[in-house]
Amino acid sequence: MTTVRLPIDVEQRLEMLAKKRHTSKSDIIKEALEKFFVEAESEKDSFSLGVEYFGKYGSSDGSLSTTYKRKIKELINAEHHSH
C-alpha cells in the first residue's frame, strides 16, 4: 500500500472528479498511473527519435569522418600552388 500527500487544490479536483464519475479517488489515481506508465514505457530516447534523420542530408561520402584532414591539406596545397 502506498500513501500519497496531495496539495489541497489537487485533492479538491480529485474529489470533484470522483463525484462526477461516481467512482473512488483510488480508481482515478490507478487509472492515471496506468496511463502514465504506458506513456513512460513508450517514450523513445534521443537516439531513437533521430535515427531516421542520421545521414539523411549527408554528403553520401561515408569516408569524410576519417579522411577530412587529408582533404583539407589537399585543398590548402591546391590554393598555395595555384598562386
Number of strands: 0
How would a textbook summarize the main sheet?
none
Quaternary form? single chain
Shape: rod-shaped
Q: What does the average pLDDT come to?
A: 86
Taken in chain order, the helices and strands follow as HHHH
Percent of sequence in beta strands: under 5%
Total helices: the number is: 4
What would you say this structure looks like, in words?
The chain is mainly alpha-helical and 83 residues long. The protein has a domain at 8-43. The protein has four helices and no strands. The radius of gyration is 29 Å and the shape is rod-shaped. It starts with 7 loop residues before the first helix and ends with a helix.
Set out the fold topology:
Elements: H1 8-21, H2 25-42, H3 46-50, H4 64-82
Task: Give a short summary of the structure.
The protein is mainly alpha-helical and 83 residues long. The protein has helices at residues 8-21, 25-42, 46-50, 64-82.
What are the defining features of this structure?
single chain; 83 residues; mainly alpha
